[in-house]
């Protein structure tokens, strides 16, 4: 792994240097504000790039053929390309597969294509809301989710998108636990000509309110919630109660999370009364059955989704059509994507 620490006046300049020196796949490990040699504030960014270890024999380097043969794709056989089989590859629950299998023939006999029928049935099994409806203006929106779900990135994406649409948002955070957890939001706000606020208590909220003034939206990041560490839930709930700020809560579900663990999240976070599910990390998997399972079981509507870790990539609206197209196609393996 190559690690590089550099300073730059803005995040855009830093990203340009990182891409030039480490490549487009480099990961940003940390960011912080420092004072430069000239006494002016600047950014210090640490980034890394994974590099494969050299093989002992060049002839033994894995080729595409050897990779796929040593890790065969769990594809259906030629006689096993039925929709139930495809849905099982996606991890859709057997209960939902049974319901879909029972209802599809009737819709197809009525003249609907298989994709149209699947879309109609998915829209009945899960609730979907337009992105604008899920993120109502004039409200404070709180984003909760497990570690690595991409809440901070999502808040940054939404702030950038709002700015592009001419809306003023307030960027807030309750995450004073994760090392460097607040800095990405502070940098995003600075790049948008604004200031992010870390809410450590009622006094900090009052200061933020006085500084921000009227806003179309308030976006609030939170510490990660591990379903197996209930004390974190109690701590966050106590913080919110102390602030006394009415919020609309959104549960962020990473698409690549284990299906059983994802199903636990709506139950584990019930005390926060989430009003919608936001699927993130859609680019990190091609198996989306867990999203349908969780939405159908919890009754929480699907609305926003995030398909990239890049802040500039705007969130998209998750629709029955998109989910039907994804679930109606066999999942692809990493080595099947062109470089």
The ordered string of helix (H) and strand (E) elements is EHEEHHHHHEHEHEHEHEHEHEEH
Largest sheet: 8 strands, mixed
CATH H level, superfamily name of the domain at 131-318: P-loop containing nucleotide triphosphate hydrolases
Mean of the pLDDT scores?
84
Do you know the CATH topology of the domain at 131-318? Rossmann fold
CATH hierarchy, class of the domain at 131-318: Alpha Beta
Q: Determine the strand fraction and express it as a percent band.
A: 15-25%
- SS elements, strand count: 11
Helix content: 25-40%
- Ends apart, CA distance between termini: 20 Å
**What's the number of helices?**
13
Shape estimate: globular
What's the arrangement of strands in the largest beta sheet? 6-5-7-4-8-9-10-11
Residue windows where pLDDT falls under 50 for at least 5 positions: 52-78
SS-based class: alpha/beta
Radius of gyration: 22 Å
Query: What is the CATH architecture assignment of the domain at 131-318?
Result: 3-Layer(aba) Sandwich
Description of the structure:
The protein is of the alpha/beta class and 339 residues long. Among the domains are: 2-49; 131-318, P-loop containing nucleotide triphosphate hydrolases (Rossmann fold). Helix content is 40%, strand content 18%. The protein contains 13 helices and 11 strands. The strands form 2 sheets. An 8-stranded mixed beta sheet has the order 6-5-7-4-8-9-10-11, with helices on both faces. Helix 12 links the parallel strand 9 (276-280) and strand 10 (302-305).
């Amino acid at each position: 792994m190559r690690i590089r620490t550099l300073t730059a006046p803005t995040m855009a300049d830093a990203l340009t240097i990182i891409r030039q020196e480490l490549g487009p796949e480099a990961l940003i490990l940390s960011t912080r504000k420092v004072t430069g040699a000239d006494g002016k504030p600047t950014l210090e960014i640490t980034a890394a790039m994974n590099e494969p270890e050299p093989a002992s024999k060049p002839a033994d380097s894995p080729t595409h053929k050897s990779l796929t043969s040593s890790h065969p794709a769990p594809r259906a056989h030629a006689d096993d390309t039925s929709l139930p089989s495809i849905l099982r590859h996606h991890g859709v629950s057997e209960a939902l597969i049974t319901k879909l299998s029972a209802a599809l023939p009737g819709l197809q006999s009525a003249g609907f294509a298989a994709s149209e029928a699947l879309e109609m049935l998915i829209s009945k099994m899960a609730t979907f809301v337009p992105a604008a409806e899920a993120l109502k203006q004039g409200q404070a929106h709180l984003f909760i989710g497990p570690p690595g779900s991409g809440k901070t990135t999502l808040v940054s994406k939404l702030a950038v998108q709002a700015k592009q649409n001419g809306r003023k948002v307030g960027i807030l955070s309750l995450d004073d636990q994760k090392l460097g957890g607040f800095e990405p939001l502070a940098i995003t706000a600075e790049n948008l000509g604004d200031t992010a606020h870390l809410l450590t208590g009622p006094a900090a909220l009052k200061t933020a309110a006085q500084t921000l003034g009227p806003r179309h939206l308030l976006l609030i990041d939170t510490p990660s919630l591990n379903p197996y560490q209930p004390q974190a839930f109690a701590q966050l709930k106590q913080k919110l109660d102390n602030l006394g700020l009415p919020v609309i809560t959104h549960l962020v579900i990473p698409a690549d999370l284990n299906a059983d663990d994802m199903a636990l999240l709506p139950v584990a976070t019930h005390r926060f009364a989430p009003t919608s599910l936001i699927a993130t990390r859609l680019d990190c998997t091609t198996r989306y059955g867990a999203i349908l399972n969780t939405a159908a079981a919890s009754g929480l509507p699907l609305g926003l989704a995030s398909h990239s870790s890049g802040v500039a990539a705007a969130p998209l609206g998750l629709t029955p059509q998109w989910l039907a197209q994804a679930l109606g196609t066999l999942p692809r393996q990493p080595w099947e994507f062109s470089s």
